[in-house]
Design goal:
The chain has about 525 residues and is an alpha+beta fold. The longest helix has 26 residues. Helix 6 runs antiparallel to helix 7. It has 16 helices and 12 strands. The chain binds adenosine monophosphate and magnesium ion. Adenosine monophosphate (AMP) binds next to loops.
Length: about 525
């Protein structure tokens, strides 16, 4: 498959205790962090899309990707030598409540591939039942798989820490889902995504042994995580636990600050969906902010409480880190280092946010009052029902010496609100222009910095839906075309203006565009 055979070094299953029982039967798994389980073969695996960057990262070559064997392996029908499939055991807090054992109910890791001096765990999502499936089928529908595949790669190209996606394979089988949980189950095409990350450990991986009082297992897992996933802490000595927790906190801060920069709403920030490496993980009912609204969540399951709305993701991440701190507290003699880590989260988040603010607004540096300037702009976007991505991107086109609000014209969704905010926006642009001129950056430097912080192309919910609609009709070119655009989100791509448009009217209330259920 490659010039050299792929080299797997499955440390997770070799170093950590596994479940003595085999097979996918539903069970509580105690004293173990994984269960051996094989993917369930599918009828007719067919490669729909792949990420050229991830192919290169893993040291695969493209001719093999196009070959018959690839879809067999990444659809779950075959294994490469050295693969040793397992499902991980973890728990989690879901919507604020401890949910007990969850585990990989439909994710099966195939192995840890060593390539280019790095370790990459390859994991199929939708590969059939595991001991953690809790009565569900372990499968995934095409629509959610397209969304996970595209968003993983889109986020990477936006510079947001994320798990990656190697491939999207159609299974040739039907999966039955009740999309709106209203008693109307329907057959939908099934698919399998291969996700890729240095580690798929989650906060919930640590919470589960802690919840069972299994301190020996918890200690073993933390030691493993530091050794494998945080090699930079090898020499930290007595400080290693404290440094590790602080690192988890600051990485999480960096990730969430990026989400706020690009307008990403995760949608299900349960602690089982929080990566120990601060990577965006588990793309489900996520969404992209279009008309700016900090209260918005795409997740219809969360429509009542809006726990996971855009504007409170930082607070939720903090809450989740407190759950992790509680879980690992038996490893600490006193709480001070854990509190220090949590404080570092807040400090780092603020620093990152300032850094993004300076770039997004085209300033040379942060001075007192700039956060107010930003808050006022966001308030106007909200009041005027304006597209977040288009509005920020357009700011680079404003002449600070003679600002003209017409530059923001394409961002308005509601004509009636436009009239109300135009004078206020014009005034804001004037003050912003003065602020920009005070920093005296060269215009081309300012413009480049702004355009590197304010993407032109994001995975608008309806763009994904258009690609899904085509794929469900058997045409996967929409996925490939969209991925191609999203590989260069900060570039102006002539001829591809259609991918940088306001949400069209048809998408306003359409399922999959403004509302997403957890059913996947
Ligand atoms: P999620 O909300 O996707 O993070 O999933 C929560 C839990 O439910 C995880 O343990 C998943 O593995 C599991 N799960 C979700 N969908 C399925 C499915 N179709 N079959 C089996 N397990 C599932
Ligand atoms: Mg999950």
């Amino acid at each position: 498959m490659r010039n050299n055979e792929p080299h797997f070094d499955n440390r997770f299953v070799q170093a950590l205790p596994g479940d003595p029982e085999r097979g996918p039967g539903r069970r509580e798994v105690r004293g173990a962090l994984w269960s051996a389980v094989s993917p369930t073969p599918v009828a007719a695996p067919r490669l729909l899309a792949y990420s050229p960057e991830v192919v290169a990262l893993l040291g695969f070559n493209e001719s093999v990707v196009q070959g018959e064997g690839f879809a067999q392996v990444f659809g779950g029908n075959a294994l490469y030598a050295g693969m040793q499939p397992w499902a991980a055991n973890y728990g989690g807090h879901q919507f604020g409540q401890w949910a007990g054992q969850l585990g990989d109910g439909r994710a099966i890791s195939l192995g840890e591939l060593l390539a280019g001096g790095q370790r990459w765990e390859l994991q199929l999502k939708g590969a059939g039942p595991t001991p953690y499936s809790r009565g569900a089928d372990g499968r995934a529908v095409l629509r959610s798989s397209v969304r996970e595949f595209l968003c993983s790669e889109a986020m990477h190209h936006l510079g947001v820490p994320t798990t990656r996606a190697l491939s999207l394979v159609a299974t040739g089988e039907t999966v039955v889902r009740d999309m709106f949980y209203d008693g109307n189950p329907q057959g939908e095409p099934g698919a399998v995504v291969c996700r890729v990350a240095p580690s798929f450990l989650r906060f919930g991986s640590f919470e589960l042994p802690a919840s069972r009082g299994d301190i020996a297992l918890l200690t073993q897992l933390v030691a493993f995580c530091i050794d494998r996933d945080y090699p930079e802490l090898a020499d930290a000595g007595a400080q290693r636990h404290a440094r590790w927790f602080e690192q988890v906190c600051t990485r999480t801060a960096v990730m969430v600050a990026h989400w706020m920069r690009v307008g990403f709403v995760h949608g299900v920030m349960n602690t089982d969906n929080m990566s120990i490496l601060g990577l965006t993980i588990d793309y489900g009912p996520y969404g992209w902010v279009e008309d700016y609204d900090p209260e918005w969540t795409p997740n219809t399951t969360d429509a009542q409480g809006r726990r996971y709305r855009f504007g409170t993701q930082m607070q939720v991440a903090y809450w989740n880190l407190v759950r992790l701190a509680q879980a690992v507290s038996p490893l600490f003699e006193d709480a001070a280092p854990l509190q220090a880590g949590l404080d570092a989260f807040r400090t780092r988040f603020e620093q990152e946010q300032r850094h993004h603010l300076v770039a997004k607004l085209g300033l040379g540096r942060f001075v007192e009052g700039d956060d107010t300037l930003m808050a006022q702009f966001l308030q106007l976007l909200h009041e005027g029902e304006m597209d977040m991505t288009l509005a920020f991107r357009a700011l680079a086109e404003v002449d600070p010496a003679a600002p003209d609000v017409a530059v923001l014209e394409a961002a308005f969704y509601a004509p009636d609100k436009r009239g109300q905010v135009l004078p206020k926006l014009q005034d804001w642009l004037r003050r912003h222009g003065q602020r920009v001129l005070a920093d005296a950056q060269a215009p081309e430097v300012r413009r480049a910095t702004m355009n590197a912080a304010n993407p032109k192309y994001v995975l608008r919910n309806w763009l994904a839906q258009e690609a899904i609609d085509r794929a469900e009709q058997g045409d996967s070119a929409g996925i490939t075309d969209l991925l191609d655009v999203l590989r260069h989100p900060y570039d102006d791509q002539p001829g591809r203006e259609a991918f940088a448009r306001r949400r069209p009217e048809w998408a306003r209330e359409r399922a999959g565009c403004s509302m997403l259920s957890c059913s996947s």
